[in-house]
Design a protein that fits this description.
- The chain is α+β, with helices and mostly antiparallel strands.
- Helices cover 39% and strands 14% of the residues.
- It has 12 helices and 10 strands.
- The strands form 3 sheets. Strands 1, 3, 4, 5, 7 and 8 form a 6-stranded antiparallel sheet that branches.
- The chain is elongated.
- The N terminus and C terminus are likely disordered.
Length: 385
């Protein structure tokens, strides 16, 4: 009868032994799926060999919103990225999860890289919501420094792409030294201090405070701005400001038009800075120190497109910045690139190792160079007229 069948089913459903069998079957199914996924990953990344088990993965602690820098003048003066291993990259279309990527990177750190203790993970998300990953590996001898970021961080190369950074390390504490950086304002925050420094330069030279259209900055206002800055601004930024202003001002002196040189000095300084800001640069110092650097290289003759317009900007500033100020501008740009990191959803500024770092040998000072200065062979090269 139906009533009897129903009662049998109820009894079986409440049977502890039946529940245990069902639970065991479910766990077995999950284990089987996990094992199959590990095998899939091992087939996708054969160079890693067998993946480590979860116990090994659990030996690594994650420090979120943190990145690592190992490029800059320091890596160039010692001839390599000391102690930095290779990179493991996973593309968008491979469908790897974060937990799977962690296992892959721990395996590479443990089984492939020599003496690896730390790796940086960058998780990228594109405008379609797809995710990719990249890990870079380090050991206790790595000449590298850690710095804080504010996730998510904007991509400078792909519109709509953002990154989350974190560092995985053995032990309770990440032992890499903190990136100190050039202590100056960066990006748009640098505009007013530079303008104030130029105004102060005129005041010191001509004993009056010139009015600047668009910058209603009184002498008192500027004094407060300049006094609030760390000494790095005066050491590494101010010389380029003074030199650039004075070169443009001197070139515009006209006895029949007294004072015209002041406006010319500010106009030239602004044009040079605007160009350099657009030109940008990275932690490889060729962009500032090499023969084809953005500071002195001039644009080729303008070419017209089919619609009769000038072609795109060439991205160099030789026709905007005075070559006489090359060394000073190089130092200012290296200071900016090596400033305290400001990495967030709007910008990536600073972080390069362009100065000696506490905890390492004094590579730059001992090599006769110095913080935020092009290496000796390119400081003021012979190709500069």
């Amino acid at each position: 009868p139906a009533e009897f069948s129903f009662s049998i089913q109820r009894i079986e459903s409440n049977d502890p032994l039946a529940k245990a069998k069902s639970s065991k079957s479910s766990k077995s199914s999950k284990t089987s799926k996990a094992e199959n996924r590990v095998k899939e990953l091992e087939e996708m990344f054969p160079c890693l060999g067998p993946l480590v088990n979860q116990t090994v993965v659990d030996n690594y602690a994650e420090k979120d919103s943190t990145s690592i820098q190992n490029q800059g003048l320091i890596s160039e003066v010692i001839g390599k990225e000391a102690g930095a291993g290779t990179t493991l990259r996973v593309k968008y279309e491979q469908g790897i999860t974060k937990s799977e990527m962690i296992k892959l990177c721990v395996t590479k750190c443990e089984e492939v890289e020599e003496d690896c203790t730390t790796f940086l993970m960058r998780e990228g998300t594109n405008s379609q919501g797809e995710t990719d990953f990249r890990c870079k590996f380090y050991n206790d001898n790595s000449t590298a420094a850690q710095y804080d970021v504010k996730n998510p961080v904007i991509s400078l190369s792909e519109r709509g792409e953002f990154f989350n950074y974190s560092v995985f390390h053995k032990g309770d504490e990440l032992l890499l030294p903190a990136h100190k950086g050039c202590d100056v304002p960066v990006g748009k925050a640098l505009k007013i201090p530079i303008t104030c420094r130029a105004l102060q330069y005129v005041k010191d030279a001509a004993d009056f405070w010139p009015p600047i259209p668009g910058f209603p900055l009184s002498e008192n206002n500027c004094s407060q701005v300049l006094e609030s800055l760390a000494s790095d601004f005066e050491d590494y930024i101010a010389p380029s400001v003074n030199c650039t202003y004075s070169e443009f001002a001197a070139a515009a002196i006209d006895p029949s038009k007294p004072g015209v040189e002041i406006g010319a000095g500010f106009a030239g300084l602004d044009a040079c800075l605007t160009c350099l800001e657009k030109a940008g640069g990275n932690c490889a110092t060729d962009s500032f120190c090499g023969e084809d650097n953005v500071i002195t290289k001039t644009c080729p003759a303008a070419t017209c497109t089919l619609d009769g317009q000038n072609g795109q900007e060439c991205g160099t500033c030789g026709d905007k910045c005075p070559s006489q100020c090359l060394a000073e501008i190089q130092t200012a740009m290296l200071c900016q690139a090596g400033a305290k990191a400001v990495w967030n959803e709007e910008e990536q500024l600073g972080s390069c190792l362009h100065a000696d770092v506490d905890g390492f040998a004094n590579y730059l000072a001992d090599g006769g160079n110095g913080d935020y200065k092009c290496l000796n062979e390119t400081a003021v090269p012979n190709w500069v007229v």
